[in-house]
Amino acid sequence: MAMKAIAVPKPRDTLQQSVLPWLLGVCVAILAASAIIIGGWLAINGLTSLLAAVLSWTSSGVWRPLTATLFITLLALPIAALVGGLAAGALADERIFGAGVRAMRRWLTLLGSIPTIVIASAIVVVAGAIGWQPTLTGASLAVAIASMPLMTALAASVIGSSASPVGEAAIALGASPAVVVLRVLLPRAGLRFGGAITLGATNMIGGAAVVAIAAGALAQGSSGQDPIGAWPLAVQLWLHAPVVSQYGATAAGALVLTMLLWLVQGFGLLRATPTTSTESR
Amino acid sequence: MINVAERLFETGARTCAILVVAIAPTAIAALVIASALALVRGTPLVDAAGFFQLGGATLGLALVSATIGLIVGGGAGLYTMEIATPGLRQGIRALAGALHAVPAVGFGIVAGGGLLYAVHKPTAIVVFGVAAATLAINIGSIAFVQMRRELASVPAGLREAAAAAGADSATIALDVVLPSLRKRIAGLWWSLLATAMGEGVALQVIFAAALARVSGVVSPHASSAYGTFATLLLEQGATLRGTALFALAPVALTLLGMTVAAVLIGRRAAGHVPWP
User: What is the domain-level CATH number for residue A83?
Assistant: First the structure.
């Protein structure tokens, strides 16, 4: 029998050996410099206006827009998390959908590629056809719908990562799908499921497109800001970004929003405990 | 014996899964019907030439930013996780985390501010260059996180075997880990391309700032001068109300087709396209 020769890789030459890690270092430098430049730019332009923005209770300050952000998030997040969590539970136990579950999982990954702007456009087209003009309350429903695929994917990955052996053991012992999901998989996912919800919340807090489209942020005579009377902070920043005279206030708002997202994201990552050795490095 | 609560859970879970999976077909159906109605009415949002111009800008910006973003973010991820010392790794991860926390509108405000305060009025090439660079950094921060996730999937035994054979960390990263991830990185590029095509907020702020700097007109409607499908959808979606919104549908449907095509081609080429 002919033996197949094992190809021994040739050692790279010294130049290549030193240049490639150096190029990777340049990539790190670009990313790090971007973070410093963005943070520095917002701080330089926004710090002088930050105090005025923090002390003002008008819609041009940060508190009312933050209240609107909180309003949207508090309404949309429980809906998206509940539907996403339950959907992920259905996809975790193959007995709930049978053979169709694999197709549904593949379809779900395809859903992730659809831009939220397109989903928001479809929602607002339907709203326009039936003569509905959403306010912030209606916009939060649009945000919840647009976030459902993401929440499902996050929840499915958290539940799925702790599924195989324990879930199979529970099924072998005769546990029903509800028991497997609720008493075996979810408790094992534990805090990481909370982390997934927190990460979903950052998308709602930082996202401007869905609310702007659904509530008609640029529409004439729009009452989209009701019932809070202010746009969420991300939408507020988007609306005023090109105005030179208000640039300081806009930069201050962007600084506040970034800090808020950084805190929420950090909180989410702390809860989402890494599972692999590489992740924890 | 399955009790009522368990049966309720199963029904609820099944309903929710169907609801989530039905979002895309429902959106497509609504957009197809609205497109047909918009065509019958003859009130397009843009003419044919404008449509191709927007499509070209969308694809061009997405191709450039996905490629640069993957190189920068992926390369930084590889260096951080495989080559950097533990102290340096912590520092890079903190900075990358801070960059990842910047919302899309924040990227737009910084780049748009640069254009607003520029000494010279920016030309169209400069505006698209700034837009591509901003989107590339935004995408790069996503690529960094995705690359870390892909690196975590590489079996530790592979690294240990290479280390036992005397390879240093750079050799392991470039000759062992990177080749094992070739297909997954290709899938990541397609995922980033789809993400870049759908990004509208940051680009719209940049285009509006450029328009304000060039013409002195402060208007959120910048897509008449510069734009992509996503920025046009954002502007017009936030402006139009009632049945006038039907005019959005052909643009939304085209963008949807482009992003889904990117994922499907990516799946065929790379086998797997990760969630953006």
Answer: 1.10.3720.10
